[in-house]
Design goal:
The complex is a heterotrimer. Chain A is an alpha/beta fold. Chain A contains 17 helices and 9 strands. Chain A has helices spanning 25-30, 35-43, 45-55, 67-72, 97-104, 106-120, 134-149, 180-187, 216-228, 230-236, 267-274, 308-313, 332-346, 352-369, 375-388, 395-410, 412-416, and strands at residues 83-88, 124-129, 165-170, 211-215, 244-251, 257-262, 284-288, 297-298, 322-327. Chain B is an alpha/beta fold. Chain B is 31% helix and 16% strand. Chain B is built from 27 helices and 31 strands. In chain B, the strands form 8 sheets. Chain B has a 7-stranded mixed β-sheet, with helices on one face. In chain B, strands 2-1-5-3-4 form a 5-stranded mixed β-sheet, with helices on one face. Chain B has a 5-stranded parallel β-sheet with strand order 20-19-18-21-22, with helices on one face. In chain B, strand 14 (283-285) and strand 15 (291-293) form a beta hairpin. In chain B, helix 7 (296-314) crosses helix 20 and helix 9 packs parallel to helix 15 (480-490). Residues 662-677 and 775-782 of chain B have low confidence and may be disordered. In chain C, strands 2-3-1-4-5 form a 5-stranded mixed β-sheet, with helices on one face. Chain C has 7 helices and 5 strands. Chain C is elongated and about 50 Å long. The chains are: A alpha/beta, B alpha/beta, C alpha+beta. Chains A and C meet through helix 7, strand 3, strand 5, strand 9 and helix 13 of A and helix 2, helix 4 and helix 5 of C.
Chain lengths: 435, 782, 169
């Protein structure tokens, strides 16, 4: 069972109910649950959108698109039914924040889904969880059943005259399905290959109907925002980055865990104060700041605020909020290899640059790590990655190319240390125990 | 949609808003490369080759998914774009085997062409390539998996294009492969469209693979000999010891009425022509009952003399002639002229597969009411009555599907079985097998004609509301029923019709007067004045025996001679061999058919791929067939008819009006050898000249046809340029007559049969066998 | 026909499938969950599973194969009763994920995607399972185990061998 952590710097908004048994519907209600949705019904669609825009909430999946704006793109009138889709296909390596939301506060996801439905005029929502999260799916299924039993879902919710249904759905192992249109394909019973855009989901989405698709954390934030007010939420965060977000700190850190920090919180502080610093008293070598697809930062690049804009300026991305701390005993070539191996495994294969590029990079970096590389391979790795960047059908190609470029740019010397038959300088047989 | 103006590579272009950039550029002569894109079929955005730089867009955009908009500024060949394409090719070549020297696609490979253009010449890849074993999916389809670049064109053409859905993608990432529907093999229509569209040598055909290199072939675009649709097929031919062999059939330039489409038969069932058991020497039956090979001179002399004797002794009425629905119009025409003026008989007929006579009668004098095959791809609404085009008219079926897919055409279908095209139909009505005539009565307003209900009423209402309708009907409609159907159709604002019959030139056979009662152009035999004037010979004034009557007459001993050209009535009509024992039988054919086996003299004949001339598809579209192949020892039916007439003492110049109105280069005239004459015709056509110098020249006969048959008076210029020309059926001179005997016998061919000819296609046989061979495990369990 | 006359599944699963296809605007949406649940019951996606599910959602067998071969949790060959899935992705790798994998290989005597002769265990190196902050982590079938050490790993395997392991599904 994932252990809960706490730190004084945390601002607990979305994690407010964690550890309090809020998976139980009565407990959830006691903790202000299902109030936001009733307020939303009372105040109407325009109010919801206004509050959401005011909150400055940006998509927590990684792309950081303003949520209120996304909802406002959905046409008011539509021949086809509209849908709300919750993306709980959390698969980006180093990311486990939705995991704790489903575990500790499933009703917040349900309530957020209902509010999104009210905002766009949808009558049906889907909550899609990755296949590996079966025990969380069971928690979600129970929460949905309990909400139906209370009459919160189904016909005439809260006496509003509005019907709203929620169906939970499981994936079956595919990172690519985290891409919004691939998720829709998967939910329609197909291969998780992304769709050509435009049209965007807000216009033509699930089953051809206008669809709002949001990350589970984004959706779970919604009831809290309506409860505290959009402006108040925005004030918690940094400029143009409203609120808080769940940061998962993992790797060589003393107190790994999922922490709720205000947007813009300093990365260095997050590692050394919140995370308790590097394990075994070692030195920091590098940080992957927002899930495996975000370009690596070296130890001296981490004095930067954790929001979409500041991270962008630092040459990387906020991504999914998964901060990976890497100590000075780590082989960056092996780290790069494990990263590209993942994208090679997860590439859907639809487009040439991603399909062939990830495979080629995987093979070449693998050979380099094994000592079979020559100088030219390093240029080749960079050339390949740079030629994938921006050329692929969906962002997975970029997700593979960006970190690779980062590793080869910032740690080329480590790659060079592996060339011409040299053994991995960091090879060790016995891992030291983590403290 | 309204036009928008945009700039590509500095050129101001205009196109309707919404046009895809890649298409708009192509129309302006700017080629944007693509593997996965295929016009009007597949938009996948998968290969990333068509990337272009569009101003104000953050990154390179795919031209295949970007609609043109007002003011858009595009650059298609900047260094950045070229580098992107080069890198994509490099990535592909990382895993693509470089077995180009043995690959079927070598020389015709889009990957080769792009590598050449974008210069991905440096081998960056040193890793081991993904290797996978080659697979045979069907007698026709082979899949060389490592060569596949996953452009998904095959999947798209098989799915939305063919509505077969036999191909899918399995696995993901670099392990993704195209997989057939039966795990290790295909169960499909074997159309070969997947092979045709494959940009590389991943999908190859069982009939062509590893046989030659593309540049070793000559490519001749001609008309398919199989069904009545008249698709253009391009035959790849190569000289061999005994002539010119066909190695490949495909839809190379896609310039025919069939557009992108070609079916299994048009693509692969040319192999009958290469069979080693083809007849190549004339045969005469000896007193011991066995055939002996004789030389041409002897065989022609023998047959000519014998026919002459019989005509002199018993008169023309004792001789019968059966023509073919696969010979050219000129040959069919010549055969009837030979029968009527040389043999002196109206006993002439052919295997009728549709009642074109009644159709002509119904439309007489009504201009612009016949539908071309092309119309079926564009008409806003089509009513399909009877027939099963998926099996019997694959190109028509393709057009209907494409028309629905691309233009949202409305297809209405009434049939006695649940034909596959109902899946594209807006409305489908299942009717009894004998309910076609009553359906027309119902459509025309007679509520009691069928068991009407809401759906029949909706069906009728929808059709009657159509402002422009094409009615396509099968051979279920004959005689008066056709008249009723046409009358109903003409009551609607704007209707065109098409009658469906089988084989490459069934329509031509009827048009050209291979009928006992009608001359070319459906002129009654009793009204032959301008024919006799042109022919300078008398013709029998009364109708002759039809096909069945001829065999009855033979049975009675009243038919002394029968001349059968390219037809196998003994098998088709189940004729008792004994009934022909007292009839002198002359047969022209490619093979020792059931009919040929009874002959006294057999002339080995050329097929449609070995001759030039015109053919008319079932829609009345007239096209030029060009000589592609050659087989030593065989002669065209045209030449054989002329030679037979000559040996009967008739003047060939009367039969073939060559030398009239000569406008040819005398120096290029090569005289009497048929193949030479044909090749000469091709050369002359290329130089805008027409050869009329040889008695074996079909174009001299076409001149005469065009003089005597007004409906065939179409543009020679377009015809010789390879374009189809719609016959003008309103100009027929038929007299509506009392009811004629209904002799229509539909071929009932499937996708893998083609009358007698199909039995001589090893490929078609292999497909049929592959479907009927019982599963060994099941056999063991019995 | 969505409900087949005869089914290869248990009455409970068959009933669940009967309901599943009614939940969505299109039946096909039930495909991926059905495949996973069918695998839970049968152990893998057999040809019979493909055929019945194809019938239930009204698509061709090879369309089902096309879809199932996309998802990495779905398998067409049997695995062990307990499928030990060891994450070696970055967060786990940094905290000895590979050590855990090697340890499992040694203990079970099998490699990646192999099954013990008694059919009890199979082993799989998997991509990130979403337990990064509690690394190193594994899943045995659907049950998570985190903050692992080789000693804890031994205990987990022992528990399953003795029939004491967690079994969510």
């Amino acid at each position: 069972m994932p252990r809960l952590v706490s730190h004084p710097d945390e601002v607990k908004i979305i994690s407010r109910r964690f550890g309090q048994g809020a998976a139980d519907i009565d407990k959830y209600i006691a903790l202000d649950g299902y109030k936001a949705v009733q307020t939303a019904i009372a105040k109407g669609t325009d109010w919801i959108i206004t509050e959401m825009k005011a909150s400055g909430l940006r998509g927590r999946g990684g792309a950081g698109f303003p949520t209120g704006m996304k909802w406002s793109f959905v046409p008011k009138q539509s021949e086809r039914p509209k849908y709300v889709l919750v993306n709980g296909d959390e698969s980006e390596p180093a990311t486990c924040k939705d995991h704790v939301i489903f575990l500790h506060d499933p009703h917040a996801v349900i309530e957020g889904t209902m509010i999104a439905g009210l905002a766009i005029g949808s009558k049906m929502g889907f909550i899609y969880l990755r296949g590996e999260y079966r025990y969380l799916l069971k928690i979600m299924e129970k929460a949905v059943a309990d909400a139906y039993a209370k009459g919160f879902l189904g016909k005439n919710i809260f006496g509003s005259g509005i019907d709203f249904d929620i169906v939970t759905q499981t994936g079956a192992g595919a990172y690519e399905v985290g891409e919004e249109s691939a998720l829709m394909e998967s939910l329609e019973g197909k291969r998780g290959v992304p769709r050509i855009k435009p049209p965007f989901p807000a216009v033509v989405g699930l089953y051809g109907g206008p669809t709002v698709i949001n990350n589970a954390e984004t959706i779970a934030s919604v009831p809290h925002i309506l409860l505290m007010g959009g402006d108040a939420y925005a004030k918690v965060g940094s400029e143009r980055n409203g609120g808080t977000r769940l940061f998962g700190i993992s790797g060589h850190v003393v107190n790994p865990g999922v922490y709720e920090l205000p947007m813009g919180y300093n990365l260095k502080k997050a590692i050394y104060e919140v995370g308790g610093g590097v394990t075994n008293g070692r030195k920091l070598k590098a940080v992957v700041p927002g899930g495996s697809s975000t370009p690596v930062l070296t130890a001296d690049e981490i004095d930067v605020g954790l929001d979409f804009d500041q991270m962008g300026k630092a040459g990387t991305m906020l991504g999914s909020g998964g901060i990976v701390v890497i100590d000075d005993q780590t082989c960056m070539v092996e780290f790069a290899l494990r990263t590209i191996k993942f994208y090679q495994h997860e590439s859907c294969g639809w487009c040439i640059p991603c399909r062939e590029g990830t495979d080629w990079l995987n093979k070449t970096i693998s050979r380099v790590h094994a000592g079979g590389g020559v100088e030219k391979d390093l240029d080749n790795i960079r050339y390949l990655a740079e030629n994938m960047l921006g050329r692929t059908f969906c962002p997975l190609g970029d997700a593979a190319a960006m970190p690779t470029i980062g590793f080869i740019k910032k740690f080329r010397h480590e790659f060079e240390d592996h060339l011409n038959g040299k053994p991995c300088p960091y090879a060790h047989t016995e891992e030291p125990a983590l403290v | 949609m309204a036009d928008v103006t945009f700039t590509v590579d500095g050129k101001k272009l205009t196109a309707p808003a919404g046009t895809l950039l890649i298409d708009a550029c192509k129309a302006a002569g700017i080629e944007i490369p693509a593997f996965c894109y295929y016009p009007k079929l597949s938009v996948q955005a998968a290969c990333r080759m068509c990337v272009v730089r569009i101003e104000k867009m953050p990154k390179l955009q795919t031209a295949c998914t970007t609609p043109v908009t007002e003011g858009m500024v595009v650059a298609t060949e900047t260094d950045e774009v070229k580098q992107a394409r080069k890198a994509t090719i490099e990535l592909l070549l990382g895993n693509h085997p470089l077995d180009c020297p043995v690959c079927d696609a070598g020389g015709e490979c889009e990957l080769q062409d792009m590598t050449f253009k974008y210069g991905a010449a440096e081998s960056k890849y040193v890793e081991i390539k993904q290797h996978r074993e080659e697979q045979q999916w069907s007698p026709v389809v082979y899949f060389d998996r490592p060569r596949c670049i996953l452009c998904y064109r095959c999947v798209t053409v098989c799915g939305p294009g063919m509505d077969v859905w036999a191909l899918a993608i399995e696995n993901r990432g670099v392990h993704a492969v195209i997989a057939p529907n039966e795990q290790d093999h295909l169960n499909c229509e074997e159309c070969g469209m997947c092979i045709d569209l494959c940009p590389v040598g991943a999908l190859t055909s069982g009939t062509y693979r590893y046989k030659t290199r593309p540049w070793e072939m000559n490519h001749v675009a001609t008309v398919c000999t199989h069904c009545g649709d008249g698709c253009k097929t391009t035959l790849g031919v190569r000289s061999v010891n005994d002539g010119v062999e066909i190695i490949r059939g495909d839809n190379r330039d896609k310039s025919g009425m069939n557009g992108d489409f070609l079916c299994n038969k048009g693509r692969y069932a040319f192999d009958f022509a290469n069979r080693t058991d083809r007849l190549t020497k004339p045969l005469i039956r000896q007193p011991d009952g066995k055939f002996a090979e004789v030389n041409w001179d002897h065989a022609l002399d023998f047959a000519g003399k014998k026919l002459h004797e019989i005509r002199e002794a018993k008169g023309g009425q004792s001789i019968g002639v059966i023509g073919s629905n696969r010979t050219t119009n000129e040959e069919a025409y010549l055969l009837q002229k030979f029968a009527r003026t040389v043999l002196g008989t109206n006993n002439i007929d052919h295997h009728r597969t549709a009642d074109y006579v009644s159709f002509a009668a119904a439309l007489k004098g009504k201009a612009a009411h016949t539908a071309s095959l092309r119309d079926t791809a564009t008409a806003p609404a089509i009513l399909l009555l009877g027939n099963n085009p998926t099996d019997q008219h694959p190109a028509l079926a393709w057009n209907l599907r494409s028309n629905v897919r691309l233009n949202r055409a409305r297809i209405y279908i009434a049939n006695h079985s649940e034909i596959k095209l109902r899946r594209q139909a807006k409305a489908f009505l299942e009717i009894p097998q004998d309910g076609y005539a009553s359906l027309v009565q119902y459509l025309a307003g007679n509520d009691g004609a069928i068991a009407a209900n809401d759906s029949t009423a909706a069906f009728r209402d929808a059709i009657r509301k159509e402002e422009s309708l094409v009615i396509v009907f099968g051979s279920e409609y004959r005689g008066r029923d056709i008249q009723a159907l046409v009358d109903f159709g003409l009551s609607l604002p704007n209707t065109k019709f098409a009658a469906l019959g089988d084989y490459a030139n069934s329509r031509g056979a009827a048009d050209m007067g291979l009928l006992p009662d009608l001359l070319p152009g459906y002129v009654p035999v009793g009204d032959a004045a301008h024919f006799t004037e042109e022919y300078g010979a008398a013709m029998p004034p009364t109708a002759g025996l039809d096909l069945l009557q001829m065999f009855d007459a033979a049975q009675r001993g009243d038919l002394s001679a029968l001349y059968i050209v390219g037809s196998n009535p003994v098998s088709r009509y189940g004729v008792d061999p004994a009934s022909l024992k007292n009839t002198f039988l002359v047969v022209q054919d490619m093979f020792m058919t059931e009919t040929a086996a009874l002959a006294d003299v057999i002339f080995p004949a050329a097929n449609l791929y070995e001759k030039s001339g015109t053919v008319t598809n079932t829609f009345g579209d007239i096209q030029l067939a060009k000589k592609a192949a050659d087989k030593a020892g065989v002669r065209t039916d045209f030449e054989l008819i002329v030679r037979l007439a000559d040996r009967m003492g008739s003047d060939p110049k009367r039969l073939v009006p060559f030398g009239r109105g000569v406008y040819a280069d005398m120096g290029q005239s090569r005289g009497a050898q048929s193949g030479e004459a044909d090749r000469h015709a091709v050369w002359l056509a290329a130089n805008h000249l027409e050869p009329k110098l040889s008695p074996f020249d079909p174009f001299a006969t076409l001149d005469e046809i065009q003089r005597l048959v007004p409906s065939y008076n179409v543009s020679r210029l377009e015809l010789l340029a390879g374009m189809d020309q719609q016959e003008k059926l309103d100009l027929v001179q038929i007299q509506p007559t009392a009811s004629r005997r209904d002799l229509v016998l539909p071929a009932e061919d499937t996708l893998f049969t083609s009358g007698t000819l199909g039995r001589y296609s090893d490929m078609l046989k292999a497909i049929v066998e592959s479907r009927t061979t019982p599963n060994p495990a099941e056999t063991a369990a019995d | 026909m969505s409900t087949p006359a005869t089914t290869i599944f248990s009455p409970a699963t068959a009933a669940r499938f009967d309901r599943l296809v009614t939940l969505y605007p299109v039946k096909r949406s039930a495909l991926v969950p059905m495949l996973l649940y069918a695998q839970d019951e049968v152990g893998y996606i057999s040809d019979a599973v493909v055929a019945e599910i194809a019938q239930r959602v009204g698509i061709a067998d090879h369309d089902v194969r096309s879809v199932l071969s996309y998802y990495s949790m779905l398998r067409t060959k049997p695995a062990g009763k307990y499928n030990v899935q060891v994450c070696t992705n970055i967060s786990c790798m940094l905290r000895n994920g590979f050590g855990i994998l090697e340890h499992c290989k040694k203990r079970l005597g099998i490699g990646h995607k192999e099954t013990t002769p008694d059919g009890l265990f199979s082993l799989e190196e998997v991509e990130c399972i979403g337990a990064c902050c509690w690394a190193p982590a594994i899943q045995v079938n659907y049950d998570f185990y985190d903050d692992l050490t080789t000693e804890k790993m031994d205990q987990i395997l022992e528990d399953y061998k003795a029939g004491r392991g967690k079994e969510t599904v």
